[in-house]
């Protein structure tokens, strides 16, 4: 892949990483955005006492997110080059930039984001496997998905709901 395309993907990664804390805040605040006085900062759910008092505002996290996003997405583009699976991998990585701060704040993952990355990434990888003429690459992934879904939904360490996800 040319240096210009890797740079363009890295810049998109920087934009995605810079927006990740802002998007993650929507999943980590306790209540709807219009709850409480308009000047009150949003507060994270109480995963631990120290997290419940800190405001969930974008700040230096946006700059760090932008740097991490540029490195991750640019690195994927440089490593994978013209691989047909690259768009699916970039999607998974970009959504992962949002999932990390949500998981750190709440110790849970939101179902809508996980479902979006599962469907989008899965379809993208399936399309890439079919486009390259190697559908056999899908068999180990499908076997792993089939084995991991029941294991995570009935794990004893998860809450009573089963998956431990935030809806």
Concise description?
This protein has 167 residues and is mainly alpha-helical. It is built from six helices and no strands.
Describe this structure in words.
With 167 residues, the protein is mainly alpha-helical. The protein has 6 helices and no strands. The N and C termini lie far apart (39 Å).
Report the uncertain regions: 31-36, 46-56, 154-163
Q: Let me know the largest β-sheet.
A: none
* Secondary-structure element series: HHHHHH
Say how many strands there are: 0
Task: List the total number of helices.
Answer: 6
Q: Radius of gyration from the CA trace?
A: 18 Å
The portion of residues forming beta strands comes to under 5%
Kindly name the structural category.
mainly alpha
Helix content: 55-70%
What does the overall shape look like? flat
End-to-end Cα distance: 39 Å
Average pLDDT level:
76
């Amino acid at each position: 892949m040319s240096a210009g395309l890797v740079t363009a993907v890295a810049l998109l990664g920087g934009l995605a990483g810079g927006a990740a804390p802002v998007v993650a805040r929507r999943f980590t605040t306790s209540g709807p955005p219009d709850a409480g006085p308009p000047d009150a900062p949003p507060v994270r759910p109480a995963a631990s006492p120290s997290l419940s008092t800190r405001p969930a505002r974008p700040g230096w996290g946006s700059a760090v997110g932008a740097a991490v996003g540029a490195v991750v997405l640019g690195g994927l583009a440089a490593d994978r080059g013209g691989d047909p699976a690259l768009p699916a991998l970039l999607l998974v990585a970009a959504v992962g930039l949002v999932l990390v701060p949500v998981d750190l704040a709440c110790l849970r993952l939101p179902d809508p984001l996980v479902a979006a990355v599962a469907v989008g990434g899965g379809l993208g990888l399936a399309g890439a496997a079919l486009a390259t003429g190697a559908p056999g690459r899908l068999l180990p992934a499908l076997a792993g998905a089939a084995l991991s879904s029941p294991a995570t939904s009935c794990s004893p360490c998860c809450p009573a709901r089963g998956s431990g996800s935030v809806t």
